[in-house]
Amino acid sequence: MINAATTNPYIHIHMPGSGVGGVSLPYQPYLLAWSLGRRWIWEGVIMRGRNVNEDQPRYIARTLLGGLDILGIKWSDARIAILGLAYKGDVNDHRNSPSYSIIEYLASRGVGEIVIHDPYVETPPAGIKMYRDLEESLKGCEGIIVSTDHNIYKRLSVEQIAILTGKKRVAILDARRILRRDGRSINDIECIYSTSGSPWSRCFPPHQDHC
Length: 211
What we know:
Elements: H1 2-5, H2 28-36, H3 39-42, H4 45-71, E1 79-83, H5 98-108, E2 113-117, E3 130-131, H6 134-138, E4 143-146, H7 151-154, H8 158-165, E5 169-174, E6 190-195, E7 201-203
Parallel strand pairs: 1-2, 1-4, 2-3, 4-5, 5-6
Antiparallel strand pairs: 6-7
């Protein structure tokens, strides 16, 4: 089924990430359930899967906050960068993006500052602090979430991000599983790293064990 579906150039199999956005996928299961009007579909695997997808952005945000706790960083003092506002990679469409739910959850927990980086979205909604310069957005951040799989982020490494923050304690959550490990020394930076569904692990200089 996966092989058949991917013969359509507009179909991309969704991997575990920060959530599902856009104008079709978030609503189609509900339209199907409503049109059939059957109890079995409302209680079946399709709707259970949709419920998981809806909670995924909050799960990602909670995981990042847990990383800050591990490093002993108060949420109210933290600066967190969300990499990607678009709902999928290399587009400027941010309708129903899971990044919005991540931002909302972090703000509700009293995070000190939340900044967004996206190279494609030109006019974010009012109240969203967004940067076009990647280094500027990462500077001073103790927490980073890779929320969108833009190709520009696929060229980044965990170590590079840790260094660009300029901080001594950094939690990096790669929700899209796209960051590289380049093995460079991160000196005395206390860096922890995680992906969606995996535990936090510590990042070490090349002469020690990697995450």
